[in-house]
Amino acid sequence: MILTNDPLRLALTAACFISYALVCLAPWLRQRRKRLAHAAGDAAAALAPGWIVAYASQTGNAEELAGQTAETLRLAGIPVRLCELSGLKEKDLAGAERILFLVSTYGEGDAPDSAAAFASRIMTRKLPLGQLHYAVLALGDMSYVNYCGFGRALDQWLREQGASSLFERVEVNCNAAPAIAAWRQQLSHLAGTSDAPDWGAPAFDGWRLAARRQLNPGSAGAPIFHIELEPLSGALPEWQSGDLVQVAAPSDPSRAREYSIASVPSDGRVHLLVRLHLHADGSHGHASGWLCVQARPGETVQLRVRQHRRFRLEGNAGRPLILIGNGSGIAGLRGHLRARAVSGQARNWLLFGERQLAHDFHYREEIVAWQAAGQLPALDLAWSRDGGPQRYVQDLLPARAEQLRAWLADGAAIYVCGSLEGMAAGVDHALATLLGRSALAQLAVEGRYRRDVY
């Protein structure tokens, strides 16, 4: 080291050190100012009266309407917090003045999967909510006995806790436009605005029926068809495995039917697996009859793609997957398996059930090929009409309890797709028995237990 007493050199050296210190200090000061600004913003948001818009959605309809509701409030200058119903705690309910609830009903009056914890943790208790003003938009399907059952139960519980309704509960049958318009009108009145954003759903587009083939000739069950569709515009929309399509049949265009997408965009087409629905009088279901029988190859099908966030892979894309389903539910699981093949994720376990091995092993060639390629290292099948102790897919689980726990310990996520009656309830019961109800509920909270059932 060279020392000097030269005042000029000492001054230059000191200036260099000071400049270097300032260069290092400036980014820290900028970050500190940002942290302080964010903290001030968070504090202001916490102090603002605001509104809460809470949703409970099974297939995404309630979530979409909740987003539109929140945006209407924001455009009117009203601070708003948008969250899942499961994200509300007791202190949120006790401290809020206004909450708008948009909730769907799952099955025969149950809460959607995302709201099951709220229903068991909060709605089973007494809370003093005399300060709360609320409104409920309940989504349901009148073909079920307990139409809008969860929305009605939530409304009743809120009243019993002393909360005051801003207006009467609005019930929506299968996304009926008049009921949604009634909710929007009430919302505009509360927000003091008449220039709310357009709430219209994306328009249906024309798609060409490019291919159709029956997958189960000779089956004891109703015919099931693999269907491929191409957009007339030639441009494929974006979607992810787990998403849905809505099909508007010419005989009933006001009520769209939803189907799981069985393909990924790199396939170049939307693939569906549709079971032909037969009524007691021998007539066909509106949408299934159109897709499976009435529409000729080359004809136009009115269709739109919609997100199904609750069944996408998203944060589970890098995890091992346990895929469980029956019947036409293989469609949603096939979409995930094709996505996994594209991304090179090979930790997949499929448990599938149908009637007979000889006639109902849908996509057999693909599944066998995935096995051979190491893409599907675990496969278990159940055939209800072939005899044996494991007749249904839920019957497969007890004998594989050790394997199931090992996969979950390794971070696996469970995806269930198929019929609501029998399969979904049976699988849920089997998983709860093997893992414990609280552990299964925790997997759902973490997004590692997801269902697309109908």
Number of strands: 17
The unreliable regions are 8-13, 15-31, 33-48
What's the gyration radius in Å?
Answer: 27 Å
Tell me the major beta sheet: 6 strands, parallel
| Quaternary structure annotation | single chain
Mean pLDDT: 89
Separate helix tally? 13
Through-space gap between termini: 79 Å
The helix/strand order is HEHEHEHEHEEHEEEEEHEEHEHHEHEHHE
Helix content: 25-40%
Q: Report the principal-axis shape.
A: globular
Structure classification? alpha/beta
Share in β-strands: 15-25%
Can you characterise this structure?
It is a single chain. This protein is α/β, with parallel strands linked by helices and 454 residues long. It contains 13 helices and 17 strands. It has helices spanning 7-47, 61-75, 90-95, 116-121, 149-160, 177-191, 286-294, 330-343, 357-360, 364-372, 401-409, 420-435, 437-445, and strands at residues 51-56, 80-84, 98-104, 133-140, 164-165, 170-173, 205-214, 224-231, 244-249, 252-260, 270-275, 300-306, 321-326, 348-354, 378-383, 413-418, 449-453. Strands 1, 2, 3, 4, 5 and 6 form a six-stranded parallel β-sheet that branches. A six-stranded antiparallel β-sheet has the order 10-9-12-7-8-11. Strands 15-14-13-16-17 form a five-stranded parallel β-sheet, with helices on both faces. It is globular. The relative contact order is 0.08.
Task: Put the structure in a nutshell.
The protein is an alpha/beta fold.
Keywords:
single chain; 454 residues; alpha/beta; six-stranded parallel beta sheet; globular
Helices and strands in order:
Layout: H1 7-47, E1 51-56, H2 61-75, E2 80-84, H3 90-95, E3 98-104, H4 116-121, E4 133-140, H5 149-160, E5 164-165, E6 170-173, H6 177-191, E7 205-214, E8 224-231, E9 244-249, E10 252-260, E11 270-275, H7 286-294, E12 300-306, E13 321-326, H8 330-343, E14 348-354, H9 357-360, H10 364-372, E15 378-383, H11 401-409, E16 413-418, H12 420-435, H13 437-445, E17 449-453
Parallel strand pairs: 1-2, 1-3, 3-4, 4-5, 4-6, 13-14, 13-16, 14-15, 16-17
Antiparallel strand pairs: 7-8, 7-12, 8-11, 9-10, 9-12
Helix pairs in contact: 12-13
